[in-house]
Amino acid sequence: MLQMSSVSYSYPHAADLAVRDITLSLAPGEVMLCTGRSGCGKSTLTRLVNGLAHHYLGGTVQGQVLVDGQDPLHISPAELARHVGTLFQDPERQFFALTVGDELALSLQWRGWSADDIRQSVDESARLLGIEDMLSHTILGVSEGQKQKVALASLLAARPKLLVLDEPTANLDPESTAELTQILAELKKQGIGMFIVDHRLHWLRDLADSVLILENGRIMARGDFSMLDDAELRVKYGLRAATVDDPRTTLPDMYTKQEAKSPDRETAFFSCHDLVFAYPKGKPVFSGESHSFNPGDIIALIGENGVGKTTLARLLTGLERPQEGSVQIGGNAVKPKRLSRHVQVVLQNAGHQLRMKSVMSELEDAAEGVIPKEDHATAVQSCMKTYALDQLAKRHPQSLSGGEKQRLAVACAAIRQPDMLILDEPTSGLDGENMQRMAESMRRVAAGGACLLVISHDLELIQHVCTGKIVLQKNTGDIA
Amino acid sequence: MRASLFTNINTETFVAGLDVRAKLLICIAGSVASIILSSPLSLGLILGLSTILAFGAARPGTIMKAYCFGLLMMFIAMGCTALIGLAVPSLMRWNFVSLTVPFLRMLVSINLLLMLALSTPVQELFNRLRMARLPTWLQIPLSVAIRFIPTFLEDCAQIRDAARLRPSRGLTGLWRGMVVPLLFRVLYSADDLAMAAELKGISTAGQAGGEALPGLGQRDFVMLTLTVVAFCAAIALQHFGPRFTPLPM
Hints:
The complex is a heterodimer. Chain A is α/β, with parallel strands linked by helices. Chain A has helices at about 40-50, 50-55, 75-80, 100-110, 115-130, 145-155, 175-190, 230-235, 255-260, 265, 310-315, 360-365, 375-385, 400-415, 430-445, 460-465; strands spanning about 1-10, 20-25, 30-35, 60-65, 85, 160-165, 195, 210-215, 220-225, 270-280, 285-295, 300, 325-330, 330-335, 345, 420-425, 450-455, 470. In chain A, the strands form 4 sheets. A 6-stranded mixed β-sheet of chain A has the order 5-6-7-3-8-9, sandwiched between helices. Chain A has a 5-stranded parallel β-sheet with strand order 15-16-17-12-18, sandwiched between helices. In chain A, helix 5 (about 115-130) crosses helix 6 (about 145-155), helix 12 packs across helix 13 (about 375-385) and helix 12 packs parallel to helix 14. The longest helix of chain A has 16 residues, at about 175-190. The termini of chain A are far apart. Chain B is built from 8 helices and no strands. Chain B has 2 domains: about 20-120 and about 215-240, no CATH class; about 135-200, no CATH class. The model of chain B is unreliable at about 1-5 (pLDDT under 50). Classes of the chains: A alpha/beta, B mainly alpha. Chains A and B meet through helix 3, helix 4 and strand 15 of A and helix 5, helix 6 and helix 7 of B.
């Protein structure tokens, strides 16, 4: 199905090889997991398999790659896509249509299939993924798990024999991840080979037949999944845990609604009281939401998609104004427009928050208005050291890796000395080492006297760092 | 995430029932008319008809807001003109026609744009472009541009929120806070999209199959005929109608 013999590749204008001397073989119905630190060459391998490395990115390929008997060097990625389907980390970025049915049909139309064949293939793949009732739905309104299914169905509609999956669970909640695992197991039974690149390992325990660990573009270890149970090996290659218990059941609940209203909690460090909120012409999201937080708390905000996690975060930051209720600091109500002085947010896409020419100037800009001008240099230097950014001081923030951007965004938030820091999926796409660093950064901010609210599906991060949880329930928004 | 530029499109209205191609042709005709016509009377006729179409989309609140914006723009333009006139009196001669015509043109454009936007789900525009078998070099960029409008707006909203939480100072700060992250986001998106397009077989898109484009309906032909009649009437009015002598102001 897939064979690589002594394959090396270098990107255009790059001095070093991105991957070197890779030899591997994948049989029909086999699932191979490829993991390693960020930048180790995993994504390059996927681009060698789907033909993008040579045809789209340029660069030099040595050795031989064969996909279903075809040499990607000699046929275009479009031709090769009939044999191998590629699923991106964020499926939305690979959608071209606006409805589910159109998205499934689009690539077949581009390939010149007849209308009857398209209809038949779309129906079959939609049935396989259980999305046949969603064909007329708008693609942007479905949940992350459903988006992943739509992307997978659109690949399967072209009937490939090999799938390349690049961090397919990075944006999925644990339930959607379990559902995806079942679907992939079914495809495996049907003889479809899979080459999966991922940092999150635990979900692949019963699925992956073989595992490759890459470091600096080389295969450093290979074996079956049990190899990843070796803790030393995982630390050595910066990998995540191979087994994760669901901490959502074991983490202590934060204060209940009644406790949040009790006299001692009324004057809590940071609290919200009886929040009532509905979007214009929408159903009420919250009807009397109350929470309180203490300095040093690191709270996981948990709940299904659409339950109001982001809305609660927006209310706490003052980006939305509640119809009733208040956000209080030390027992005093704070107006929404003044909350940004007390609350900071780290977005899932930290790049949205970075705007200066260098890491150092980003931190200087963040310190503006909070730290006296004469203390800027000292504060910035200290912050760079604390968050291990001193080596990157002169780098453009947008040129940093995902993990470095996240760390810089946390440092920018921390230098503003917030009372509350909200993090939205802070470890999406991070390897084990960077996840640990992020966890350390979060603990550091909490130790500095802030409370942290973490919106995340990453069970490993929640297990590592959170001290409590708030579970939002669908429709009511009440605390569990 | 938004699925259309304007939510709550009223699909029951007459305008919403028109085929998107008919609406596009009406927009093109109206735009051409507002460019070539210079008589206030002819432009007034086009304005009247375009206003009926805009209000036919049944969103009077949005239309009135757009008119207020148009008025504001007109007053700003008048203010600037007055300032220039104060400095160089010989350069500026105020009269009724020169003040009215640009304003009428702007209102016609606003009406037509709102008529299209308030009555057309993005998906419908997208489908028609796809089915129209336009040349690949035109169809794909147009489709992608339309497809990514909601995503782009979502990105803009997130970046605006980030900027609100770490306020910028002055115009430079605004530039940095909004434009720099957006620019990088667009570049990354373009790269992802190009790779996705390649893997979906875009290079074979010239032979695209799929659904056939349905014909225009009766009401589309009626509206297009009325558009042609109105267009001709406006031109006739310009050439044979009463002439306006510029009134000094």
